[in-house]
Structures are given as C-alpha cells and as structure tokens.
C-alpha cells in the first residue's frame, strides 16, 4: 500500500492533508515547516472557484502567512446596514485592521503556494474515496492509495473525513451567492463600503462585498427553505440595484456549525475548518476559523507523525482542547447573538445602528481587536442579552 516514490519504493508520508482551502493549506504549511513530509491533496484542479464572500476580517488577516502573494480588491472603511431594505444606516469603521475583500480562488491558490514553499507536495485533481486506520492511515484516492502517519481532514462542509471522525452539526444553512459585474460608476459607488441586510426569513441576512468591477452578493438562511431563500436573493439583489446584469457566477453551498460535543479527532486523524463544522453561527464567517484551526491541526499532525499510539492520541486531545476553548467559545458566544437575532432581528439592527457602544464592539471584532466572548462578557452586552431575553 502507498503511493510509489522514487525508484519504485513505497512511501509513507508523515502527514497527508485532504483539501487545499484555508484550513488544509495552513495545516500543510505548518506541518511542512515543522520538518514533516507532507502531501496536500485537492479534489479540484487549482485555481478553482469557491462560493464564498471573500471577506478577510482581522482574525483572518493575523492568521495569514507573512508575505502572502494575494491581491486585495477593496479595503472596507464603512458598513451599510438595513432591515429588509428599511431603516438603512451607514457606519464608518475605526479599526486599525480594516476588512479586506479578495476572491477565494485566489486566496486558496496563494495559500497552497505558501504550503508548497514550505516544503509540502501539492497534488490537485485527486479525489479521496475512503480511508482506514491500522496504526497508520490509508487514504484511498483516485490516483491510488496513500499511507500516512497522520491525516488532516479539511475537505469542506461535505467532508468524507468528517464522517470518519463522527462530526455532528447543530446548525446547517443554505447560502446562495452571485458574482455580478458592475460598471465604473456603480463600482465607484460601492468603493470601500460593504452592505448587510437583515432578511425576512428567520436568521437570514444578505450581503454585498465590492471587488472593483465585481460585487459578490448573496443571502443565507436555514436549510429547508430553498425556494424562499432563492426568492429572497432576487428581492435583495433588486433592492441593491444588482439585478440588471447577468451574474458571472450563480452558486450555492451549505454552511454547518458543529455540535459543541462533536469530536474533532479519531486515532491519527484530525479535522479542521468547515470539515470540523467550525463556523460563526450568526455571521457564518468561516475563513478565520479555517485558518486558525488549520494551523493548530498542522501542529497536531506533525506531533502525531513522530509519536506512537498514546502520543498521537495525546496530540489529538490537545488539539481538540485548543479548538474548543478558543473557537468553540467564540461559537458559543455567537450562538447567543444568533438566538436573539432569529427572534428579534429588528432589535439587533436597532442596537447595532443606534447604540454607539454596540457598534464599537462589533467594529472591534471585525478588525480582530476583540473576540466575541470578550465582547459578550462586557457588562453592557450582558445587560442587553438579559433585556432581550425578557422580551422574547
């Protein structure tokens, strides 16, 4: 078993990573940087399109490798909020690390290139069909079986590796997105401004992220409301003046948030990013979760590769603790916001746009200057949650 190496010898990789998105590429880069032999597998041929808003908040930016070769199309200096097209208000951002707009295919390609630069071998166009553990990990692929001392599953929200680990989800949403070309005048009007609209469906919202001559626009709502979500997308695009051009892309995907008790490891296998269900329950932001969990998964896999069974299990347990105590805490805090938002979106909109303290807290989070748990722990936030819960 194993991919044939030079001279026809069978090779055992220290670490195999499945999925070359932000989580997988980060894991491969970190593991390779630790001196491991690393194989990064990607099902599609890169660069490949990925449905994603492409906004890099502060926590994402700090997790990017230094000197990443990535084109930024817009720097966001203000946000416009509305509630189903009404009560619109624009707020200027004051953070030191403004939100950056990129295209995901370019981000993923740049991160994969960084992984290759660290020593990882990147193979695209290779799909995974199964895996098994017998002291090592055997990954069955369309190019033949691969053997590894540790495996990182970063193969997205429909992850095959996640099924092996036993990941469970408590929230699944459908996001619909279009890439709409805009003329020079419209592009100038959107320059430096992102829009959010709190939508008519429970827990729904729409967004417009400008990227020079393209606006990435979409809506998200709970899965199971497909026709209503599609109708909302059409209404939202019309309100934003983006319904007059044929989109160059019209896609959709599912976002999933893990159950708090869901496993993150099994034997010599760890999962990260979307495969682990690491996503903000309210904003559905996942890039920062992917980048951070990917780096930690790479560290854990590098340790697993040099350890026996007990040491590998310990490395996995420490990885799980790190994710749960940091990203898990962020998700739990965001869940509090989501629970209120589902029932009283207008109240959330009013607090965000009319209460300066709430806006400053949101702005600090967007710029990576605070975490959601820290903000929710603020006395004013705790008082607001108590008041909101009394009204629900």
Automatic annotation (TrEMBL):
Question: Per its UniProt record, what InterPro entries does this chain match?
Answer: FAD-bd, FAD/NAD-bd_sf, Geranylgeranyl_Rdtase_fam, Geranylgeranyl_reductase
Q: Which SUPFAM superfamilies match?
A: FAD/NAD(P)-binding domain
Q: Where is the FAD-binding domain?
A: 14-292
Say which domain of life the source belongs to: Bacteria
Instruction: Give coiled-coil spans as residue ranges.
Output: none
Q: Which Gene3D superfamilies match?
A: FAD/NAD(P)-binding domain
Q: Which PANTHER family match?
A: CONDITIONED MEDIUM FACTOR RECEPTOR 1, GERANYLGERANYL DIPHOSPHATE REDUCTASE
NCBIfam families the record matches: GG-red-SF (TIGR02032)
- The entry's protein name is Geranylgeranyl reductase family protein
Q: What organism, scientifically named, is this protein from?
A: Actinomadura fibrosa
Q: What is the lineage of its organism?
A: Bacteria, Bacillati, Actinomycetota, Actinomycetes, Streptosporangiales
């Amino acid at each position: 078993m194993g991919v044939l190496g030079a001279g026809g010898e069978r090779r055992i990789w220290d670490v195999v990573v499945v999925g070359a998105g932000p989580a997988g590429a980060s894991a491969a880069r970190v593991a390779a940087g630790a001196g491991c032999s690393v194989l990064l597998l990607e099902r599609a041929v890169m660069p490949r399109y990925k449905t994603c808003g492409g906004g890099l908040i502060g926590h994402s930016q700090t997790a990017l490798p230094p000197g990443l070769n990535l084109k930024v199309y817009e720097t966001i200096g203000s946000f416009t909020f509305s509630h189903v097209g009404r009560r619109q208000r624009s707020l200027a951002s004051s953070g030191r690390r403004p939100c950056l707009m990129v295209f995901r295919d370019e981000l993923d390609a740049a991160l994969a290139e960084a992984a290759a630069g660290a020593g990882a071998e990147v193979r695209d166009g290779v799909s995974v069909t199964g895996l098994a553990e017998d002291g090592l990990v055997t990954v069955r692929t369309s190019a033949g079986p691969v053997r590894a001392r540790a495996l990182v599953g970063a193969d997205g929200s429909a992850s095959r590796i996640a099924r092996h680990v036993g990941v469970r989800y408590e929230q699944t949403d459908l996001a619909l997105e279009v890439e709409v070309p805009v003329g020079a005048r419209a592009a100038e009007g959107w320059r430096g401004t992102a829009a959010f609209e709190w939508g008519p469906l429970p827990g729904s919202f729409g967004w417009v992220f400008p990227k020079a001559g393209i606006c990435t626009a979409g809506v998200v709502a709970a899965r199971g409301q497909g026709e209503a979500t599609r109708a909302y997308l059409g209404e939202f695009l019309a309100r934003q003046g983006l319904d007059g051009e044929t989109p160059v892309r019209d896609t959709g995907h599912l976002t999933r948030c893990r159950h708090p008790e869901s496993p993150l490891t099994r034997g010599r296998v760890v999962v990260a990013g979307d495969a682990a269900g690491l996503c903000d329950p309210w904003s559905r932001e996942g890039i920062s979760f992917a980048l951070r969990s990917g780096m930690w998964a790479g560290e854990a896999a590098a340790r697993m590769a040099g350890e026996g069974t007990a040491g590998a299990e310990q490395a996995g347990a420490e990885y799980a603790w790190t994710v749960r105590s940091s990203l898990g805490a962020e998700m739990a805090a965001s869940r509090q916001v989501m629970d209120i938002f589902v029932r009283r979106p207008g109240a959330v909109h009013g607090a965000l746009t009319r209460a300066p303290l709430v806006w400053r807290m949101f702005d600090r989070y967007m710029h990576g200057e605070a975490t959601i748990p820290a903000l929710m722990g603020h006395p004013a936030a705790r008082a607001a949650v108590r008041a909101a819960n009394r009204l629900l």
